[in-house]
Design brief:
The chain has about 525 residues and is α+β, with helices and mostly antiparallel strands. The chain is about 20% helix and about 30% strand.
């Protein structure tokens, strides 16, 4: 049954009364009908309020329900908070008496939101817990470092900033920004919120009222992330000790049984702090970078090679002056790279990406309004999430751009064909809102060799897209555009479509790239980054 707004019920009420008068129903029966309607109306509203209500709130204006760590000889410490009193976790108090119903609330099938205010002046190299319902101490070492895969989620302090992790026993996702971008140890009160949208399998992460990251955790649905452990504030619920407790204060801790909207989170922050103005593009120009960074830029280290792969990747992205970064083989490096840039972050999951960290991601200087990801399996077994994911970027008040990041098997054009078909409504309206498809297609364009054996490029041009590099450099002989270091082939592209979009320039991220085996010294990837500059007409 479709939900009705209060306005819709008011309209129905008016029609019932009007019909009753026309039918000359006696007054006492008319009153009975009116009262019956109001009962139904109130019941529906109550059900809606029940569905969207706060299921738990702790304002710490008193010590009821707070339990001390057994090793502590101190009393519960309540100090000045963002409003009235706050719990000082430096005195080793933690809270565990949450409603039994909260355990089932945190599952893949339920919408929920969690918000908390916190303050600290401590910098620690150790990870200290703010909130958890998982055995956080347990770790598993993988190809790209350690992973906390146990069922449940955790919110924690990490080198002066914060971190978020969720697992299902086999896989995990995390977001760990840096203190220069999102500090929580600067003696100021900060608000952290995360929401789970069940139908899209998405987590939205907010820092001080701003949606800084969106992570699609779709692969976790194959084994639910719902934990058997109780939610614990200020400690790991498996350890009756505060050795890893957050070294600061917390206040206004709330759980909702719904997904808070961006406006609601902004209002929540604005209750106690001045809301943050998000960046806008004040010119008509913007720059897009597409880059496969090669297994999360993990192949080079200072000890072995004299430079760090991730640090060099960040440096080169900065030099490109990209406003939007379409990335492939992100694999666990995304939150660090995007946070160093101060960018908004979107991460698409996949069956392989959930183990290593997601393949595809988008980073943007400007806010993300919507995400686009397919659920259906592709023809060769992986999720479409491994091949295609996109966002709508709010450049300014009047202009939006839709940007997709892609990775395809060079011999399997069916996956691209499926993505183009799925997003045909967006693509067909590109004249009003431009669409950009960037990615590692693992295939040579028919515009380069006249053949295009895999068919990917032909599918793109048939859909009305323009190959930005070949549009800028139409002569293949003088500008072959090699983008993969082990072959003289161009396999990485930025395609665009939209009558109101003008291409200004295209360049490789390193101009002296020569082709097979000839990477510039200190270059962190096996793929060349491609930069395209555009202007709104």
């Amino acid at each position: 049954m479709a939900e009705r707004s209060p306005g819709a019920y008011h309209h129905i009420q008016t029609k019932i009364i009007h019909r009753a008068i026309v039918m000359k129903i006696p007054n006492h029966k008319l009153i009975y009908i009116f009262l019956l309607f109001m009962f139904v109306f109130c019941a529906c509203n109550s059900l809606e309020e029940e569905k969207n209500r706060k299921v738990f709130n702790l304002d710490f204006n008193g010590s009821k329900g707070l339990r001390l760590d057994k090793s502590s000889k101190k009393t519960i410490s309540l100090k000045d908070g963002v409003e009235n009193q706050a719990l000082d976790l430096r005195d080793k108090a933690y809270y565990t008496d949450f409603p039994d119903s909260s355990r089932s609330l945190f599952s893949m099938e339920r919408d929920f939101s969690i918000g908390i205010w916190l303050k600290s002046d401590q910098v620690s190299k150790d990870t200290t817990l703010i909130l958890a319902n998982t055995d956080f101490a347990a770790q598993k070492t993988g190809y790209y470092g350690y992973r906390r895969i146990n069922k449940g989620f955790a919110l924690y302090n990490c080198n002066g900033s914060w971190g978020w992790n969720i697992g299902n026993g086999n896989q995990n996702f995390l977001y760990e920004p840096i203190a220069n971008d999102q500090p929580i140890n600067d003696k100021e009160w900060h608000c952290l919120v995360f929401t789970h949208k069940a139908d899209k399998h998405e987590i939205s992460l907010y820092y001080d009222g701003v949606n800084r990251a969106i992570l699609r955790i779709g692969d976790l649905v194959y084994k639910d992330f719902m934990s058997d452990l109780s939610l614990c504030l200020g400690s790991d619920p498996t350890v009756n000790s505060s050795y890893n407790s957050f070294n600061g204060m917390v206040d206004e801790f709330t759980i909702w049984s719904k997904v808070l909207s961006k406006d609601e989170v902004k209002q929540l922050y604005g209750t106690y702090k001045k809301t943050i103005q998000e960046p806008v593009n004040e010119s008509d120009e913007f720059t897009v970078l597409n880059w496969n960074i090669w297994h999360g830029a993990t192949h080079y280290s200072k000890e072995k090679d004299g430079f760090d792969g991730i640090e060099r990747t960040i440096e080169l992205i900065r030099q490109s002056e990209a406003d939007i970064v379409l990335m492939q083989e992100t694999y666990g490096a995304g939150s660090k790279i995007s946070s160093h840039l101060g960018y908004y972050y979107y991460e698409a999951a996949s069956c392989i990406g959930a183990v290593w960290g997601a393949n595809l991601s988008v980073m943007s200087r400007y806010p993300l309004e919507e995400t686009y990801l397919l659920e259906e399996k592709s023809n060769y077994g992986r999720n479409y999430a491994f091949n295609n994911g996109g966002v709508k970027v709010r450049m300014n008040k009047d202009k939006r751009v839709i940007a997709f990041t892609n990775w395809y098997n060079g011999q399997k054009p069916e996956d691209l064909e499926g993505a183009l078909k799925a997003w045909s409504s967006l693509i067909n309206q590109a004249d009003s809102m431009p669409v950009i498809f960037g990615g590692d297609y693992n295939s040579v364009s028919h515009l380069d060799d006249g053949i295009g054996k895999s068919g990917h490029s032909k599918l793109m041009t048939d859909a009305g897209f323009i190959d930005s590099y070949r549009a800028c450099y139409p002569i293949v002989k003088t500008h072959p555009g090699y983008s993969f270091h082990t072959s003289k082939e161009r396999i990485d592209y930025i395609y665009f479509k939209g009558a109101n979009l003008e291409l200004l320039d295209v360049r490789p991220i390193i101009p002296n790239f020569k082709g097979k085996g000839k990477l510039s010294p200190g270059y962190p990837s096996d793929h060349l980054g491609i930069v395209s500059k555009f202007r709104f007409k």
